[in-house]
Amino acid sequence: MNFTMQTNGTGLAQSFLMTFKADSALTNISFVSLTTSQTRDFVFCDPVIDNVVLRASFGLKPQMQSWVLFLCLVFLVDVV
Fold first, then answer.
1. What is the C-alpha separation between 69 and 37, in angstroms, rounded?
2. 11-60 pLDDT, tens per residue?
3. Phi and psi of 77, rounded to 5°?
4. How many domains in the chain?
5. Full residue range of the structural domain in which residue 41 is found
6. Quick one: 73 exposed, middle or buried, by C-beta within 10 A (0-12, 13-18, 19+)?
7. Half-sphere CA count of 55, side-chain side, radius 13 A
8. Is 78 in contact with 70 (CB distance < 8 Å)?
9. What is the rounded CA–CA span in Å between residue 37 and residue 56?
10. Does the reported pTM lie above 0.70?
């Protein structure tokens, strides 16, 4: 999956969420910047990837068992 972010050179920050399904149990994930823009001082000014969080769901949706919810409610009523 490719994602391209347009920049105008003013220090823009943008959040992006990407969801994907892996092809197998082991899937490589890579982040690549294909631009090589430089300032007059030869300082690179490409987009920066920062604060990356990867989460695995294993295809499961978190669900609370009804008996756990009932137990929590009983505990709360007992405390109050």
1. 55
2. 667 777 777 777 777 778 877 766 667 778 877 766 667 777 777 776 66
3. -65, -40
4. 1
5. 1-6+22-54
6. exposed
7. 8
8. no
9. 34
10. no
